[in-house]
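fyi for ur records
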Amino acid sequence: MRPLGIEGVWLWEPRVFPDERGTFHECFAEAGLRGAAGHGLHLAQANVSVSRRGVVRGVHFAQLPPGQAKYVTCVRGAVLDVAVDVRTGSPTFGRWEAVRLDDRNRRAVYLAEGLGHAFMALEEDSTVMYLCSAPYAPRREFGVDPCDPALGIAWPGDVAPVRSAKDAGAPSLAAAARTGLLPSYAACREWYAGLRGSAGGAVQ
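which gave:
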């Protein structure tokens, strides 16, 4: 797994084996994640979303503890997948990283707890699968506006973003920080250290 420019974000680039039957690839390797992050993924929930072209989901994050780490891949179509550092006090606070995930390159992104996640569907019926370290908990789930000008995510300009009412009404990153919604970098670092020192980081 290759680290990206935000601490806690890694990119998995599998080798895809084609033949006359189709293709085969390894979509997740616990050993690879453990080698990169120092711990595995406690699999608590797996989600699948199907989106029409232009749909933007996010920027979503969960408060710690326990937060929610995500391992994200696109099994059909294509998405622009975005990780956002929403951890107050982080040296890369407010920075984002974008990666194209699709059913050709078969790449995947791992986002540690405390990071924000969003994507835009680039094709019709784009299907995204998430492996999550914690189940969905509405009282701990929050979001920031994916179109916040100050955040400046470079969404593709050839399609108008389609958002849910909840995502469209999410606060800006600055407003979320002022109201205390965002996780702290110090708390996240402490959580990551605990995962590295505990067998609880393994796939179960």
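Residues 2-186 form a domain with the Jelly Rolls fold (CATH 2.60.120.10). thats all i got for now
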